Amino acid sequence: MFIMIKINLSKPHFEDMKRISKQLSKGHPFLRVDFFDTEDKLYLAELTLYPGGGVVPYQPKSFDVEMGRKFHVPCNLND
Description:
The protein is α+β, with helices and mostly antiparallel strands. The chain has helices spanning 14-25, 61-70, and strands at 32-37, 42-48.
């Protein structure tokens, strides 16, 4: 027996999340921005500068190498 439950998955601050994420990530080749979103307020939770926090290897190793070649981190962020 299945019980159908209606869940509201809307994000009341989704447009704000996109705007803030774009502002914070400007000048970074990668930046994951995490939020806590409540009905009343939006909270910034965490900023991550590298996929997987920079410590999770991709599998297979050949894919890790391929992605690494495409990911450029400038020595000077003004470059």
